[in-house]
Amino acid sequence: MRPHELFSKNAKIILRDLGLLIQVVGLMALLSLPIALFFKEYYALEPLLLTALASLALGQGGFWAFRRAGETTLKQGMVIAAAGWLLVALLGSLPFYLIALKLSAQAGTPQTVLNFLDPWNGIFESIAGFTGTGLTMTALASQLPRTLQWWRSFIEWIGGVGVIVLMLSIISGPGQRSFSLYYAEARQEKIHPSIRSTVRTIWWIFTLYTVGSVLLLRIAGMPWWDAVNHAMTGISTGGFSVADRSIGGYHSLWIELALLPVMLFGAISFAIHYQLLRGRKLRLLWEDQQTSWLLVLAILGFLLLSLEEVLRLEPLPAIRDAAFQFVSALTCTGFQTAGLHEWSATAKLILAAGMIIGGAAGSTAGGIKVIRLVILAKGIGWRLKRLISAPNVLVRFRLGGTSLDDAEATRRIIDAALIAALWLFFLAVGVVVLLHTVPKSFGLSDIIFEVASAQGNVGLSAGITGPQMALTAKLTLCFNMWIGRLEIIPVLLFLRSLFAGVD
Predict the structure, then answer these.
(1) How much is the pTM?
(2) If 126 and its partner were Cys, which of 93, 294, 323, 454 is the partner (CB 3.0–4.6 Å)?
(3) What is the pLDDT, as a whole number, of residue 170?
């Protein structure tokens, strides 16, 4: 019996598109070879080549076997997105394990590298990277080989926009398939009518801002290698660092000031960036409802956190730490300048609130998204006005200058409430699991903080995450990172399809 006769039509479509998707890892591994050569880390060449071979062979096999399977529906696209992100992360973990294996026989290999001999640590690191989370199994990032430093930054940079978006920018054409896969990766904004034009414009903007961020960080005093890596993980709101204490290791106010706009720009919708680059004035940032709410939330969170921190520190250090850490939390970047394990429970919960809200829809940030907060807040006001208004009075629901009819307004509110409710439910599940698996020295605020950081795809840590974690805790945070990046629904459809199929 031939391979295509063993699978249903749905399975053929899913396997074909997964075959295309996982080849992204192979291309990334090949593009990383010059880094190993430049730094004379020749031991990293074989691991990268093996990663490329595994990814391209599996991908090509799946694609060519089912290349004529037909159009991809939205349900299939969501299953592909959920399964694809897991497969991409598994393949992306190979360089961590294989390079650690190569170096394990050498005397003096740092323990932070040897930790990746446990495959689960590499899988955790890869999932954290591709989801743009930044929680890490790396205790001392400066001791990693340059190839692994690059690989961590590269997977966050690609994951920030999305592996599906990258795939579509290369191979997409007109039709339902492109829309289904694009939408399934938690993206809805369209800069152009064409999905292919939209994703290519997104990558053009993203690359331009990355180069600008490198130059800004270099001017601020960061070494070139560090500037390249932090620009990639900053504009992608990922948060991996090549320094041992993240941005705090530089002890530089100028570097922190340079990163504030980088993190904020990463959390603003690509559609807004496109309009700015087309010549719109900066007041667009305030005129756009979602962006203005993001900026207001950043200011309010900074003020609240400053008031809390000034009880512990002198005013200027408190303001400096509060400004950087709340922007890092709200934008879901995850850079750290302070030892957050030393902060009060109230300060951690303020940061957790920022991580739960997240950045703008259509950006690289995670969280529930600002637009859903706007819809829910306006929805409450709209419903209250309707309750106290006379029956014959028409109460309009206005969103971003647009007036919506009752049916559309109700649909938007229900959609936002559903995602928010599911988000908080899985946050609670993660908290309950970690309460039973982490040392008792960590309090409830620490655990809420850590799970919010994972599910919000942030990367700030209260000290819980590390190679010493129990496997159950690692898997739980991996699950939270996964559902957070795909905004839950694709993951639920994928899990349902494992038992009931895709109808």
Answers:
(1) 0.93
(2) 93
(3) 65
